[in-house]
Amino acid sequence: MSIAENVARVRENIARAAASCGRAASDVLLVGASKMNDADACRAAIAAGVDALGENRVQEMTQKLSEHAYDGAPLHFIGHLQRNKVNKVVGRVALIESVGSPELLAAVAAQAEKLGVVQDILLEVNIGGEEAKSGFAPQALSAAAEQALALSAVRVRGLMCIPPVAEGPRGSIPYFEKTHRFYVDINEKLYHNKLDMLSMGMSGDYEDAVRCGATLVRVGTAIFGARNYRI
Q1: Is position 230 within any domain?
Q2: Taken in order 136, 50, 194, 208, is the CA torsion positive or negative?
């Protein structure tokens, strides 16, 4: 199937999942996770109506920016961001979804202040407590949200999570539900209901994420096809 056909199918699935829990499809932003897909594929996804594109790798993002691959859609950075590459991302993307440590939060804020911009971010929560994954531990999330409030050069829009690999159908749901509870709690207690983004769900579980309250899903292979990691 073409990228346009894939986007249409994902949109239909999002609409069906949203309707099943009394939500509107328009409540959910579709981000095309375009890692390892070329500029033409990015342009095709934009033409097909994705709401944004998301990149995982700084070098790849920089190359595709030079090719104007993202013209016509907001760009999100959704991968692990090293502090020594913050200067290549801050101010160049609409949203950094993967701010997952106090040090990275401070580095993003410092670079944004240097550039004279306010960088929109999401706080990434390591909802499964996995050692190999980045993100704030759930018990550290409130402190991180308070730290961010004191930084004038960043604006927290919400939370992001990548749950552990699901064991069986609907295995991600407990992690999505837990992340949603954190989102609601922080939004009410610290941000006075100004947060508007909860980024959960990828190609294998985005429908469950929508049912659990996601306002943004990051979909790669279901739009672009399987990635060839041998290249």
Answers
A1: no
A2: negative
pLDDT in tens, 79-108: 999 999 999 999 999 999 999 999 999 999
Mean pLDDT for the stretch of residues 70-78: 98
Which two three-digit tokens encode residue 138? 């759930």
Answer for the pair 219, 209: CB distance below 8 angstroms, yes or no.
Answer: no
- Which residue has tokens 């949200």? 145
Q: What distance in Å separates the CA atoms of residue 214 and residue 42, rounded to the nearest whole number?
A: 23
Give the tens place of pLDDT for each residue, 32-50. Answer: 999 999 999 999 999 999 9
**Whole-prediction pTM:** 0.96
CB 95 within 8 A of CB 122: yes
Contact residues for 164 (Cβ-Cβ < 8 A; gap 6+): 128, 130, 175
Q: What is the CATH number of the domain that holds 30?
A: 3.20.20.10
Distance CA 74, CA 92 (A): 10
Distance CA 134, CA 78 (A): 12
**What range defines the domain where residue 215 resides?**
3-224
User: What is the total count of domains within the chain?
Assistant: 1
